[in-house]
């Protein structure tokens, strides 16, 4: 799971399961460690970190994969699929528009965005070997206006 600063949901998960959070930001990891003392937190890039094959029961990634260059999504889905045990679950939000790559300000911080339309996301997940259980496009209200995401629950 990519952790950010740790949320109440992350805290609950860490109380019930062995939780490993990943983030690039040392500041976010420090916050997560304070808020979620039962979790394990690693400073790493989700596109390059390695886990043993079949070692994860689930991967959750909320509002992260739309910040990964889209040409890295297919190999990342392949790697996530390999990390998970048979029957494991992936719950993720993906970009929902055809966005090759763009850097702009979000909450006054330069941020990278990219994504594919939902149909392309589905093709990438299917090609990696996932079986989609739930698949929805959802629009939410963010500080700068509405944002649409592709939510997917899939099984290995």
Describe what you observe in this structure.
By secondary structure, the protein is an alpha/beta fold. The protein has a single domain (45-155), classed as Vaccinia Virus protein VP39 (Rossmann fold). It has four helices and eight strands, in the order αβαββαβββαββ. The strands form three sheets. A four-stranded mixed sheet has the order 3-4-8-7. It has a two-stranded parallel ribbon with strand order 1-2. Strand 1, helix 2 and strand 2 form a beta-alpha-beta unit. It is globular, with a radius of gyration of 15 Å.
SSE arrangement:
Blueprint: H1 8-16, E1 20-23, H2 26-35, E2 40-43, E3 56-61, H3 73-83, E4 84-95, E5 99-106, E6 109-115, H4 118-128, E7 131-142, E8 145-155
Parallel strand pairs: 1-2, 3-4
Antiparallel strand pairs: 4-8, 5-6, 7-8
Helix pairs in contact: 3-4
Features:
alpha/beta, Rossmann fold, two-stranded parallel sheet, four-stranded mixed beta sheet, 156 residues, globular, 26% helix, 8 strands
Oligomer: single chain
**Per CATH, which architecture?**
3-Layer(aba) Sandwich
CATH class membership: Alpha Beta
Could you give a short account of the major beta sheet? 4 strands, mixed
| Low-pLDDT residue intervals, each spanning 5 or more residues | none
Per DSSP, what share of the residues sits in E-state strands of 2 or more residues?
A: 35-45%
Instruction: Tally the beta strands.
Output: 8
Shape descriptor reads: globular
Radius of gyration using CA atoms only: 15 Å
- Fill in the CATH topology: Rossmann fold
């Amino acid at each position: 799971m990519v952790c950010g600063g740790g949320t109440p949901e992350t805290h609950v998960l860490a109380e019930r399961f062995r939780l490993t959070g990943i983030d690039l930001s040392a500041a976010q990891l420090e916050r997560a460690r304070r808020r979620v003392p039962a979790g394990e937190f690693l400073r790493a890039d989700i596109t390059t970190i390695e886990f043993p094959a079949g070692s994860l029961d689930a991967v959750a990634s909320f509002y992260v994969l739309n910040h990964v260059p889209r040409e890295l999504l297919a190999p990342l889905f392949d790697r996530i699929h390999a990390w998970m045990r048979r029957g494991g679950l992936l719950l993720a939000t993906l970009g929902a528009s055809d966005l090759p790559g763009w850097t702009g300000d979000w909450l006054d911080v330069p941020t990278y965005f990219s994504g594919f339309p939902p149909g392309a996301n589905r093709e990438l997940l299917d090609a990696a070997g996932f079986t989609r259980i739930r698949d929805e496009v959802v629009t939410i209200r963010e500080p700068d206006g509405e944002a649409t995401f592709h939510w997917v629950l899939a099984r290995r």
